[in-house]
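Side project, low priority. Logging it here so it doesn't get lost.
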Amino acid sequence: MEVRVNESFYVYLESYKGYDWYLENLDEVLNSDVQPINQDNIIDGQLKSSSFLAFEDDSKSGVNFFSFEISRNSTLEALPTLKFVYKKGNSNDSENDVHAQVHLVADYGKEIRSWFHNDPKKDVIIDKKGGEYDIMVSSNTNNLVTLWGSLSHDETLSSGYSWYLENAEDLESTELIKLIYTGSHVLNRNSVTEYEFGFGMGELPKNEVLPSLIFTYKESQESKEVKYTAIVNLRMENEAIIKINELGDVEKTFNVLKNEIFIVELNSVGYEWNLVNADEVRSSNDIEPMNLNEYNSVPFIRKGTGNNYIGANIYKFKVKETATPGKLQPTLEFFMRTNVNQNGAVGLARPYSASITIKLNKERSEEELYDKSVPVIKYEENDKQIVYVESNTILKITQESNASTGFRWVKENVEEITRSEFIDDIGTSYRSHCSQAIPGCGGDETFMLFQKW
């Protein structure tokens, strides 16, 4: 928890009626620059929580809270760890006690912390089951990752799991990204705990591949048993992504735009994917390799925890200005060799390959896309159906829409349309149902697609 000089702060701890939280190391805290604000509840050398606040939907469960302040003259150099214990009433039985610790960290960057608290934007919200997510980042910006965890389901607080940043040490070795804010609080309306991790991006060179953020949901930072894992892949804006997740002999075709940067992400478990025709790619007039080193390899981005070597080799390329529409040369040929055969036995090398054909879409002039002489096929039914189209035609899809309801029609597969060899997205138009602009009137949203094969 970040603290500042001359600042008051609160610690909220989940609780149930009949139970109380105590500050165990009261003497240590009193001899530091951190002072409890309410010292009236000191019992046997321990400070009892000030009050119990019940959740709105459950009168039995809620939170106990403690209030502290940092001395005006503090240097923030020797901050204590706040150690709490959860007990039932006046019971002396310590066998079922629950312990919690809050590590205090000096916060010298007020403007950074304020940004995270005042800006409601969350780049990604991850539920407690984890999963893999992509977020777009850019140079010299801040990003907030929010993870949801469960509250306890009974008075023993037995579910005590939290989210932790597993690869914090990896981030310390790079100037590209820094962890600059952490925080957690109870989100009562959803009955969850929100864990927030704020990251600051440095200057991001276009040839760099950013590390993935690895979060684990477990009982403590030291715990080896992980209940859930969440992976957040950091992607630079305007990068196209080709993912190879399957093992075997893979062949794919991917459509790109002129001057576009695209990455090929090849997942593996500790084995390296190699670009077999690296020399040919280096001399290509169509494709420029951006992150190949002198050994024709790229970094391995870890996505596993502990001794788990799950991760990916990520190759980055750029479509050259000299590239012409159609199939680009050469085809990207990747190869990986493991020492595990198809039946899982060790000792027999099993090669895997991935062949990726890159095609450059033809750029079309505005006159071509909006040629009024092109036949128009109208589709106006608010339902699922098959529409048969011909080449060099415009398909218009119209749906009734009303922005005042808070909802509107959008294309869900924009990326797929952008990459298509057969469709150009011309744009969207809106026509009100009213002759004058009247709020709540509603209208028709029309999506226009050009069939270009």
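Brief comment: The chain has six helices and 33 strands.
Revisit when time allows.
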